[in-house]
Amino acid sequence: MSVKPIFIFSLPRAGSTLLQRLLGVHESIDTTAEPWLALPVFFALKERGATAVYGHSASSAALNGYIDSLPGGRSDYYSSASRFLCDLYDCGSSGNAIYFLDKTPRYHLVVDEIMMAFPDAKFIFLWRNPLAIASSMIKTWCDSKWNLYIFYVDLYSGINSLVNASRNSKNKIDVKYEDLIRSPECEMQRIMEYLELEYAPDFMDKFKDAKTIDAPGRGDPTGQYEYSGISSKSTNSWKNIISHVYRKRWCKQYLNWIGRDRLDVMGYDLDTLQNELRDCPARYKKLFSDIIRSFYGVIANQYCLEEIRNNKPWKRKVYFKKN
């Protein structure tokens, strides 16, 4: 019998590694570090957004042309892709599990395609305070330096895609990171009910003794190793990173862009987040370097921000070319 897939949809640094490890201690769930299996399968359909030596746009046009000629059109492609991925999930499963959990945050790029290809799968949407996500990104990957333009595709397009997918799906469960670490037993019981699995009251003991989900070069560079327990300290740690006027100004604009409606879907209140941001200390350390880095991000224009904000495919713009 083939395993059934579970997908965790979230932004990077939203706590998906913690949730993966909590679920992975259940005997009916197999998982591994971020496999990225579905991303190339479905992103191959997109005309823009990938760089390859063979010419991605031409490849996408040819692939979509072939798919259009099939009797079932895109449905045939989704069905075949689903069988292909399920075969790989079976290969990575122990044989005793009911589910295989695929946790890859960049699946927000192909969330609609995954949900169409796997209509009977289980989907967990994991949300976290977006300011905490931004803070964790620069702390984890940028040594606390203000390089958020690197992650605009996640912070803008990612949120837009995930919110829309959650709105349009009935076969899913929404989980807030803050609720998960404050009341893990309650949240895990709710998730197990959604997965139609028996809840084990001793899961926390198993979680503490569980092996790390490790794979060199893949997955969460910190969460794979740090979770010996669950602490609620991380809910407010973002305030130490958003520590001066420039960062607070960016965060205020970001919250306004997300807007009340999208935050409601995620389970957050705009006024509450704005008040918390307002109460952060207004320091001036690193202010000048942050402005310089932000200016560089605008000049380099690694991604077209307006297209990303509107959840459209982006085109890399290059202003400086070698002769």
Topology at a glance:
Blueprint: E1 4-9, H1 16-24, E2 29-31, H2 38-43, H3 56-69, H4 74-91, E3 99-103, H5 111-117, E4 122-127, H6 130-141, H7 152-168, E5 173-176, H8 177-182, H9 184-195, H10 203-209, H11 223-226, H12 245-266, H13 270-278, H14 287-300, H15 305-309
Parallel strand pairs: 1-3, 1-4, 2-3, 4-5
Helix pairs in contact: 4-5, 7-12, 12-13
Provide a descriptive summary of the structure in words.
The protein has 323 residues and is α/β, with parallel strands linked by helices. The protein has a single domain (4-309), classed as P-loop containing nucleotide triphosphate hydrolases (Rossmann fold). 50% of the residues lie in helices and 7% in strands. The chain has a 5-stranded parallel beta sheet with strand order 2-3-1-4-5, sandwiched between helices. The chain is globular, with a radius of gyration of 20 Å. Mean pLDDT is 87; it is low at 316-323.
